[in-house]
Amino acid sequence: MAVEDATTVAALAGQLGYPTTPEQIRVRHAVLAAAPDRGSVLVAVDAGSPADVIGWAHVELRDTLVAPATAQLMALVVADGARDRGVGRDLLRAAESWARDHGCEALIVATRVTRTEAHRFYRREGYDLDKTSHIFL
Is 0.85 surpassed by the pTM of this model? Predict the structure, then answer.
């Protein structure tokens, strides 16, 4: 991701259910960009117009004492009009590659229980449900 992508990335975050402003994306991206070995925001661009971001994925390292080196897919979204073209699969494969390149044995994917389409997608891509958790704030 480049800082110039912030407006489109913010709009796609909204499609994912996380309303975010371009300025918030810029600030958060700066934090992530300052530690490139800890995580990455990968973007997919339209082949017909390379300046147009049509999807993005955020992957980061997950340090824990109880598991081998892993990465976690923090978010993956593809624009409404670009779905069913393999963009999500390509972003997922790029995240897996990033994880392997950073010494990870696995990529963890967490998704809300209500996202049934996402569940079908991840299962189709070879992921199996391992456990269900509750997150408390």
Answer: yes
Encoded tokens for 102: 């950073």
For residue 16, the one-letter residue type is L
Q: What angle do CA 100, 122, 89 make, to 5 degrees?
A: 65
pLDDT digit string, tens, across residues 8-46: 999 999 999 999 999 999 999 999 999 999 999 999 998
DSSP string of 20-66, one letter each residue: --HHHHHHHHHHHHT-TTTEEEEEEEETTEEEEEEEEEEEEEE--SS
Q: Which of 56, 52, 46, 51 is closest to 14 using CA atoms? A: 56
Query: For 56-76, what is each residue's pLDDT tens digit?
Result: 999 999 988 998 999 999 999
